[in-house]
Amino acid sequence: MRWKHERQFGAQIKRFLTDNGREYLPIGIYLESQGVKFDTSPPYCKGQNGLAERTNRTIRERINTLLSDAKLPPS
């Protein structure tokens, strides 16, 4: 994942921020072993994870638009 990103975008991953979910612990251990700083935001604090929350909203809106155009139900 890291090297694919670095090759594709020409940028090095220096920090990985998550919402403190348990599912990210294994990747956090791996990333730290590779020199990437692994940070978590406080639980239930969307304000500190604003960029990710906005990105998720944009993705949901685009998916709903595609489903609507295809005449499919939203769920």
Automatic annotation (TrEMBL):
<dbReference type="InterPro" id="IPR036397">
    <property type="entry name" value="RNaseH_sf"/>
</dbReference>
<keyword id="KW-0238">DNA-binding</keyword>
<keyword id="KW-0694">RNA-binding</keyword>
<keyword id="KW-0233">DNA recombination</keyword>
<keyword id="KW-0229">DNA integration</keyword>
<protein>
    <submittedName>
        <fullName>Polynucleotidyl transferase, ribonuclease H fold</fullName>
    </submittedName>
</protein>
<keyword id="KW-0239">DNA-directed DNA polymerase</keyword>
<dbReference type="InterPro" id="IPR039537">
    <property type="entry name" value="Retrotran_Ty1/copia-like"/>
</dbReference>
<keyword id="KW-0255">Endonuclease</keyword>
<dbReference type="GO" id="GO:0016787">
    <property type="term" value="F:hydrolase activity"/>
</dbReference>
<feature type="domain" description="Integrase catalytic">
    <location>
        <begin position="1"/>
        <end position="75"/>
    </location>
</feature>
<dbReference type="GO" id="GO:0046872">
    <property type="term" value="F:metal ion binding"/>
</dbReference>
<dbReference type="GO" id="GO:0005634">
    <property type="term" value="C:nucleus"/>
</dbReference>
<dbReference type="InterPro" id="IPR012337">
    <property type="entry name" value="RNaseH-like_sf"/>
</dbReference>
<dbReference type="GO" id="GO:0006310">
    <property type="term" value="P:DNA recombination"/>
</dbReference>
<keyword id="KW-0548">Nucleotidyltransferase</keyword>
<keyword id="KW-0815">Transposition</keyword>
<dbReference type="GO" id="GO:0004519">
    <property type="term" value="F:endonuclease activity"/>
</dbReference>
<keyword id="KW-0378">Hydrolase</keyword>
<keyword id="KW-0479">Metal-binding</keyword>
<keyword id="KW-0808">Transferase</keyword>
<dbReference type="GO" id="GO:0015074">
    <property type="term" value="P:DNA integration"/>
</dbReference>
<dbReference type="InterPro" id="IPR001584">
    <property type="entry name" value="Integrase_cat-core"/>
</dbReference>
<keyword id="KW-0540">Nuclease</keyword>
<dbReference type="GO" id="GO:0032196">
    <property type="term" value="P:transposition"/>
</dbReference>
<dbReference type="GO" id="GO:0003723">
    <property type="term" value="F:RNA binding"/>
</dbReference>
<keyword id="KW-0695">RNA-directed DNA polymerase</keyword>
<dbReference type="GO" id="GO:0003964">
    <property type="term" value="F:RNA-directed DNA polymerase activity"/>
</dbReference>
<dbReference type="GO" id="GO:0003677">
    <property type="term" value="F:DNA binding"/>
</dbReference>
<keyword id="KW-0460">Magnesium</keyword>
<dbReference type="GO" id="GO:0003887">
    <property type="term" value="F:DNA-directed DNA polymerase activity"/>
</dbReference>
